[in-house]
Amino acid sequence: MDFHYKALPWNIIFGVGALNRLPDELVKLGYSRALVLATPNQKETGQEIVKLLDDKAVGLFGRAMMHVPVETLNLALAEAKRLDADCSVSIGGGSTTGLSKALAFHLDLPNIVLPTSYAGSEMTNVWAVTQNNRKVTRRDNVVVPTLTIYDPELTLTLPPAFAAASGMNAMAQAIANAAAEDANPVSSVMALEGIRALAHSLPVIISDPVNMDARVEAMYGACLAAAALGTGATGLHHRLCHTFGGTFNTPHAETHTILLPHSVAYNADARPEATRRIAGAMGVSDAATGLFDLAGSLGAPTALKDIGVKQEDLDEAATVALETPINNPEPVTRERIRTLLDNAWHGHPPRPV
Ligand code: NAD
């Protein structure tokens, strides 16, 4: 065995009710002028955080948006400067965390993150901004949250359909790393445990949304899956998802859910052992089919045509995805990508192409 593992500077508190520790933790970190970030959907939750922080909050920016449009970033930058914020406290899914990361990069603003979905952005050093229909992602450790507080109670308000898709998004973070070209053994352990926890808990959440054990297990799985992504690789799957998100503004978690079985089938021959281990962690005989069936059983979308992608968009998607080289176990060609996209558009079961 021969590997190099370098962890990111994670600082995590996990537990039911952990949100209540936020004010004390802020004081311990030495911050007293927090700008709270939320999406318009979760503005009320943002206001509750402002209340919880009391005199340690200077304001609420409630306009975080998916894929961090540069216009949103510029508004948030101006607000953070106007209010002389000394940190951000973001409450929400990957969109809000993403905004906190972009602020950290541009202003060196420490970021405290309260995740409410399973996107996992808080565990990675990847940050992105979308401009001129292109989502550009970069890695920088300065964007890794100063503190992440995982409180599974915050996921109780997730609408079931989004909980399913978001959980499959977490699954994708883990799978990308369990089956990567240069998979790291430490990341792989986290990835496989994340896959197991998610495959076990997501069906329970859909059938029994207030089951707290399942909420805890799913958030734990999402944390591990994203930790694997945080130090590991991305390949064809993430490239395709970012292409659809950046160019066609498709919803992130749902795009992952639909494309994941197809990406796994695409790489299965190149990474047979890893693909078998993924199936083993899920408790199924075939990883790609198991993922397709899991998404279907959770009521998550399984066809690109159902999330607003037009068939005539597929050619452009293949072109954009191939604009820069992709590090992927199985060689990537335009023809094969185009076939994969066609299958995913129709919602066909996954198959090697
Ligand atoms: P999101 O953050 O846009 O959330 C979708 C909607 O659900 C939003 O309106 C949000 O306010 C709402 N929501 C979230 N949690 C909720 C809850 N508990 N209760 C009620 N409503 C809730 O979507 P997402 O899938 O979490 O994140 C997607 C974004 O994150 C994308 O832009 C993606 O690129 C990015 N992302 C980045 C990384 C990374 O490592 N940089 C990793 C994963 C995702």
Secondary structure: elements and pairs:
Blueprint lengths: L11 E3 L7 H8 L4 E4 L5 H11 L3 E5 L8 H13 L4 E6 L1 H14 L3 E5 L10 E6 L2 E6 L7 E4 L9 H19 L6 H23 L4 H20 L4 H13 L3 H16 L4 H11 L4 H12 L14 H9 L12 H13 L7
Parallel strand pairs: 1-8, 2-3, 2-4, 4-5, 5-8
Antiparallel strand pairs: 6-7
The chain binds nicotinamide-adenine-dinucleotide.
Question: Short summary of the structure?
Answer:
With 353 residues, this protein is an alpha/beta fold. It has helices at residues 22-29, 43-53, 70-82, 94-107, 160-178, 185-207, 212-231, 236-248, 252-267, 272-282, 287-298, 313-321, 334-346, and strands at residues 12-14, 34-37, 57-61, 87-92, 111-115, 126-131, 134-139, 147-150. The mean pLDDT is 95.
Shape assignment: globular
Percent helix among the residues? Answer: 40-55%
Distance between the termini: 32 Å
Small-molecule binders here are:
nicotinamide-adenine-dinucleotide
Helical stretch tally: 13
**H-E order:** EHEHEHEHEEEEHHHHHHHHH
Backbone CA Rg:
19 Å
| β-strand number | 8
List the uncertain runs: none
Classification by helices and strands = alpha/beta
Q: Strand order across the biggest sheet?
A: 1-8-5-4-2-3
Largest beta-sheet details: 6 strands, parallel
Residues in β-strands, percent: 5-15%
Q: For the residues shown, what is the average pLDDT?
A: 95
